[in-house]
Write a structure and sequence with these properties.
Length: about 350
Amino acid sequence: MESLAFYGIEDLRYEEKEKPKLENADDVIIKVKYSGICGSDLSRYKKLGPLTPGNIFGHECSGVVEETGSNVTNVKKGDRVAVCPQLKCGKCEACKAGYFAACENLLVIGAKEPGCFASYTRLPAENLLKLPDNVSFDEAALIEPSSVVLHGLFKTQLQPGKTVAVYGCGTIGLLACQWAKLFGAEKVIAIDIDEEKLSVAKELGADEVIQPDKNVSTYSKLMELTDGVDLAVEAAGSAQTSEEVFAAPKKGGEVLFLGIPYSDITLKRFYFERIVRQELTVHGSWNAVSAPFPGREFTTTLQFLKEGKLKTQPMISHCISLKEGPEIFRKITTGREKAMKVLFELDK
């Protein structure tokens, strides 16, 4: 089968791999229809390298059930499915408490286990969600990143009438803008250096946008629009925004970290004092799963896709073949091509 295998930093190869086989009675083989590039994939490709050299990369996907183990009852051959790519151990204290996001041995396919940048992938049956007829495969490939956003927002006090600032308008930030409006936020302010991404943010629900520049601070621009927001979401994963996000909330407000900076973070006194003097609540959010597994993050996303309330198409900037994978990774990480959500289309 065709695949993208990750061998080292900036070393992603399109090559033939053996089709996965059922190993456990609860296993399911999925014929992949669409798989998406996550921002974390780009960072690992450029900066960190693979956990298992030569492993099939990728963890966001949708597909069709190809084969099932003897104990599988929730899906059958031919079912259209979305995938939860997180693999919990089920044995540690966190898992026993139903706190699956804190599983001591939590894995995501595409890291140590084969991922979904391939014609086929293998997962436990409990990791699959059957798709309603009106939810397309390309929409379903974005269920996992949407669930990442919801996992964080569910920790906050976000409710109707609140104000929200979102720093960074990649896939996660754009989904955060949408979900904030779906939660009933009165005003959502999107912040990004890319004018095209800000345009998409407005299309997906942002009421105001801020494009940072060297002459006027983002904080000043934000204060022209509001006297402080109830919730500030860091979705860029940059050192700069991980500091600036503390300036956005009003007294008693909240900060939610969804982005993952791959560098050290320092806080100027002004930003640190905002945490203390504004009595901010700061949330860290990791992964997308909860109890009952895979969690309400996934089922809520699926419900809102089914009802047509969550929009994913405007975020999809590329839909390409798997063979084009190594080149698109090179282009994006070297700045030669701009992209929002890149999907690989398989089994055309």
